[in-house]
TrEMBL record:
Keyword Lyase on entry: no
Protein name: Amino acid ABC transporter permease
Xref: PROSITE patterns: ABC_TM1
Taxonomic placement: Bacteria, Pseudomonadati, Pseudomonadota, Alphaproteobacteria, Acetobacterales
Alphabetical list of Gene3D superfamilies matching this protein: MetI-like
Organism encoding this protein: Caldovatus aquaticus
Family the entry assigns: Belongs to the binding-protein-dependent transport system permease family. HisMQ subfamily.
ABC transmembrane type-1 domain boundaries: 12-200
SUPFAM superfamilies associated with the record: MetI-like
Top-level taxon of origin: Bacteria
Cellular localization per UniProt: Cell inner membrane; Cell membrane
The entry's keywords: Amino-acid transport, Cell membrane, Membrane, Transmembrane, Transmembrane helix, Transport
Chief location bin: membrane
InterPro entries: AA_ABC_transptr_permease_3TM (IPR010065), ArtM/GltK/GlnP/TcyL/YhdX-like (IPR043429), MetI-like (IPR000515), MetI-like_sf (IPR035906)
Amino acid sequence: MREASPILVQGLVQTILLSLLVVPLGLIGGTALALLSTVRHPLVRWPLMAWVDVFRALPPLVLLVFLYAGLPFAGLELPAWGAVAIGFFLNTGAYYGEILRAGIESVPREQMEAARSTGLTGGQAMAYVVLPQAVRNVLPDLISNTLEVVKLTSIASVVALPELLYQARQAQSVTYNASPIVAAAAVYSVLLWPVVRLLSRLENRQLAARR
């Protein structure tokens, strides 16, 4: 582990940078999908439902391999970072979108009507009144999904992006020892344990508030 620590640190830095990229991308995509879900017109609603269902059903690993190794056959070659960014945007955006949609629907319609009666436009009422309440209502789900997204960054190793798991496997191939993999697992646990505890507290608080 001591010999592999420098390469593992490099992988950890890449994992953190990757998480800082894909989580905001997923949130942006999810917010856009959630806002579009408020449009009731069939020409918007049905394609949106199909989009969300497809990217929730498609395994992220398959999607990533398709973007990185399949698109070059169509003349479009993406770098590893680009393929990961697009893949996570499509996949995690669909999940974040469903969570935020549920949050928006949990806010009573009277809130929107009351906001509009004060002179706010529909967009302002959504941004300043509805969305903050929606996020608060589904905050544990958002954090839980973010936790899953950070863990899912390990699949970036299949496109040779040097994140933590990839570097651990490289170190293992050099040392012929499983210790780097064990060390990577320990790093993931230490890194994500505070988020797990925060999620548990939020869930318990939310359950207590409902009683």
